[in-house]
Amino acid sequence: MVQRILRDLNLRGATPSYSLAVVKKGKLIFKDCHPDYLIYDCASTTKPLLTFPVVEVNVDLNADVRDFIPQLPYSLKMSELINHTSGLIPWLPLYLFKDSYIDTILKKGFKGEKGEKVYSCLNYILLKEVVERVCNKDFKTIVKIFLQSFENCFLPPVRCISVAPTERGNVYEYKIAKRFVKDPDKRKFRFNRVIKGETHDLNSHYSNGIAGNSGLFANISGVIKLTQTLLKSDNWTLPLFEKDNYFYHLGFTGTGIAIHKRRDIFIVFLSNRICPIVRDIDFSSLRHYIFESLFREFL
């Protein structure tokens, strides 16, 4: 039944490679990888799987962000950054502005309405800044320490043959960046080469590879372990989004996790669907179809 679902979806026609796993009651009950055990740029699934647990270990989630970044325009709890209700706009090409990431966010980012759930990478870039100020270390060092107990999880640059490539240059992001900056510096966008082992997201790429919003690399085993760790938190739903009977998070490169509300079963999907270009495919709906189909099959 599962193989028929995957065959009907024609995943091999939608992405060059993928890894899919179902874990139930702590045991791997289904796995389908083409090819086996590639390492993927996890993109925004970095937020719940890596940045959130690092924040939770180091900072009170009820703390006022202004205790660490006093220049904020209004009071915000750490939890409001985590669950995307801060009032920040979804995105900015921070690497294209002369000011620091934080100063640019403070000047240009707070244009939404606090309390309204709007997905924003800027939330997690601010979380990174808070953790750095609390720990008095750079974020990459903090994250490396956290990942020491996790095999098959990596930080960029990842120099090995088994890393799945992503886009040939940041062509898609260049188009989006032009909405914010007239004539963006093309040298920033890695044109004319395939991105491999470097974070696809440019805000993270130009912030030592990991800016809180993106930067995790892992294979299917690594993401399974990180998801199991997330589930140990009393606040595990906080960085996730809700759909019907499960919570989930997706990543732009073609990744995603889905955790059933019963908590005893979850799905991990990794792919490099943007290689070599970002195609006009509704890959978000495809991932949700996979999640829903596999939950029905294995519950």
What's this, in brief?
This protein is of the alpha+beta class. It has helices at 2-9, 11-14, 46-58, 78-82, 101-108, 121-135, 139-147, 171-177, 202-205, 220-231, 283-298; strands at residues 18-24, 27-34, 40-41, 153-154, 217-218, 241-243, 246-251, 255-260, 265-271.
Calculate Rg over CA atoms: 18 Å
- Regions with little confidence, pLDDT below 50 for 5+ residues: none
Q: Oligomeric status of the shown chains? A: single chain
What's the number of extended β-strand segments? 9
End-to-end Cα distance, whole Å, is: 14 Å
Report the mean per-residue pLDDT as an integer.
Answer: 96
- Structural class, by secondary structure, is alpha+beta
Largest sheet: 6 strands, antiparallel
Count of individual helical segments? 11
**Element-level helix/strand string:** HHEEEHHHHHEHHEHEEEEH
CATH class call of the largest domain: Alpha Beta
How do the strands of the widest beta sheet line up side by side?
A: 2-1-9-8-7-6
- The CATH architecture term of the largest domain is 3-Layer(aba) Sandwich
